[in-house]
Design a protein that fits this description.
The chain is α/β, with parallel strands linked by helices. 34% of the residues lie in helices and 28% in strands. Strands 3, 4, 5, 10, 11, 12, 13, 14 and 15 form a nine-stranded mixed beta sheet that branches. Strands 1, 2, 6, 7, 8, 9, 16 and 17 form an eight-stranded mixed beta sheet that branches. β8 and β9 form a beta hairpin. It has a domain of 202 residues: FAD/NAD(P)-binding domain. The protein is built from eleven helices and 17 strands.
Length: 378
Amino acid sequence: MKEELKFDVLIIGGGLAGLSSAIHLSKSNLSVLVIEKNSYPKHKVCGEYISNEVLPYLKFLDIDVFSLGAKKIDRFQLSTTQSKLLSTTLPLGGFGISRFCLDHALAKKALEVGSEILEDSVEDIQFSNDEFLVETKKSNKFKAKIVIGAYGKRSNLDIKLNRQFIKRKSPYLAVKMHVKGDFADDVVALHNFEGGYCGVSKVENDNINLCYITNFNVFKKFKDIQDFQKNVVYKNNFLKDILSNTVPVFEEPLTISQISFDAKKPVENHIIMCGDTAALIHPLCGNGMSMAICSAQIASRLIIKYFNSETSDREALEKQYLREWNVAFKSRLKTGRIVANLFNQPRLSEVLMRGLKWFPSVLPFIIRRTHGKVMSIE
């Protein structure tokens, strides 16, 4: 029988939120274990554009994205299903970097500052006597005072935890690919097509990241991804031009299904949820990576206060995290849902585009509503 190892904080999932938290907490001399089912580096289905709001926090974590090859982005393009295009400057700006690159850099830094990373998957979590007992697929057992859930959009663990959103089937499918070709370094584009939308931006190594989301019921009418793209995605002239004049980097595109935009609880079963595990903003607003990093900062700062006895008890910690999470993200998520609903109606989106051309200041306003403010480091 394996010995139960104890940590101050156990983090389930080693993506952006999990690794950022691990670095932050380890820098404050807490013992941290990250349990991640995949090895690094690994490509993930993701838009790979991040708002500059996180740069001060990444600097605090000793991560320099531009030394890793990130592309500075300060322009935004939006097109409708009828290939009508709008362009604007990004109020805050951002950068493009792959999850392959950024997750790997964060994992190396986490190990460097004292975090432990275990390649395994969590099978069960029990909470009793103000402590967690976590069991993994490889029969490891761990105890921890705090558990952070940072395992992504959906997991079998959500079923075990009886989370409400996992009970509802979601119709969305996402496809991601890297290609080589001609695309401006400083632009992030969002091109709509019937039943979906595609984000386009440069990342390190001059690769172009394309990541689109669509309704699976529409997608399954076609024999494969290529057939779907040629019959649906290509109807947007900008996407047709990009996909027809570039060379794939991956052997096959990456896909993920059952993407849920239903409401989730940021704290469940006393687990502090971060990143996509806490909520998923519509990719149409293109800032999920930034939200994951921001949520890690909020959680880590409050957890450190808890261990330093600056917070009275677990209940106070959970309530404060929920309050700060809502202040940071509730409005963003609401805006994201509204924008996505509007652009899911092709005729209405065309009318909106005409309105945005008449009132160009509205688009930067919407962007600000989904991109937050530059993070402060306390």
